[in-house]
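An instance noted here:
***
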Amino acid sequence: MAQTVRKTSASTKPRKTPTKKTAVKAKIAQMPTSHEQVAELAHRFWTERGCQHGYDAEDWFRAEQELRAKAS
């Protein structure tokens, strides 16, 4: 009788599992910053600039970036 050979779908190399530190950083980076936190920081940037109008979008995006950088 002929023998049948089964092929496995598993690769020969073991998979690397993410470290605990990497997993925590990824989870924190995905956490949304609260609207209130961004608004407070953007307002602080506005007052530090002397309450000049016309830079609200830049202040908002800068506040979001800084809060996300602190979280990671």
Observations:
- The longest helix spans residues 56-71.
- Residues 2 and 35 are 69 Å apart (CA to CA).
- The chain is about 55% helix and 0% strand.
